[in-house]
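Slide 14.
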Amino acid sequence: MSNGPSNIVDLPQGSDLIQLSHEKKTNLTCKYVVIKCAEEERLIFGPVVRFPYHANLVNKFCDMFEVAGGWEKQPDSFVIYDFKCNVVGGGWLEYCADHGAIRLYGASSAYGRFDHASAEQMLKQDPRFSVFSYEVVD
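Slide 15: predicted structure.
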């Protein structure tokens, strides 16, 4: 289950949304979830305009990595059937072009809140996101 060297998946896949927003000096609001499969955690995020529910991200993850899952209550609850994988939690990710900063906050009503400090560390380990400053709001 590898998507390159990073455990960060930005959707649509390969779009480098944060970098594009940085270059265009535009703000970006996303939702994110963290999914753990075996011992590997992946942070998946996508713009709210394309992924209005955290469940949309989980569904897309399952499609991309061929993980069994299905809608429990569409559009807000997508369940992973594979016992090796589970959604650890989620939140919001906001890129502020004026400050070159990423803000992590909030929670997923379907999957709960992921520890934003841990999400920050995951993002900083990826060279694409290590250059930004971070604000974690609890």
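Speaker note: The chain has a mean pLDDT of 87.
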